[in-house]
């Protein structure tokens, strides 16, 4: 298994992987290559961006994308996107990807990582099995404006 840091040169390969993963179950989104490329470019160009593509036998099968955030007393990392091809799920690839991310972040002085995700049992179970827990001190609020 290989982990290759993402650069702007990877945007089309990454976007293809993104569309394949998130247009399938359990999300069943409706991404196009155009909208995925736009999303990937936004993330890659954001301040503090870090991400990698995971490959098995040189075939890309997953990715993690996120952003470092500096606070007054520590640095956090928000996982913005994580995905693994359906046929590669339940093979410990996700656990290995999370371990690699944690290793890199720890070396980079990051203190905490967090994410927002859909309340789908398999997804929530994956993250809790990787040591994530709900933060009682935080709440997600939203407001529709259109």
What does this molecule look like?
The protein has 146 residues and is α+β, with helices and mostly antiparallel strands. The chain has one domain: Aminopeptidase (3-Layer(aba) Sandwich). It has helices spanning 11-22, 33-44, 93-107, 121-129, and strands at residues 2-5, 49-56, 59-70, 75-84, 112-115. Strands 1-2-3-4-5 form a 5-stranded mixed sheet. Helix 1 (11-22) packs across helix 2. It is globular. The model has no long low-confidence stretch (mean pLDDT 95). One of its GO terms (molecular function) is acyltransferase activity, transferring groups other than amino-acyl groups.
Outline, from the CA principal axes?
A: globular
Q: Sheet with the most strands?
A: 5 strands, mixed
Structural class call reads alpha+beta
CATH class: Alpha Beta
Rounded Rg: 15 Å
CATH topology descriptor: Aminopeptidase
Number of helices: 4
Strand arrangement within the widest β-sheet reads 1-2-3-4-5
Number of domains: 1
Mean pLDDT: 95
Low-confidence stretches: none
SSE succession: EHHEEEHEH
Helical residue percent?
25-40%
Number of strands: 5
CATH superfamily: Gcn5-related N-acetyltransferase (GNAT)
Strand content: 25-35%
Pfam families: Acetyltransf_1
Domain N-acetyltransferase: 1-146
InterPro entries: Acyl_CoA_acyltransferase (IPR016181), GNAT_dom (IPR000182)
GO molecular function, one term: acyltransferase activity, transferring groups other than amino-acyl groups
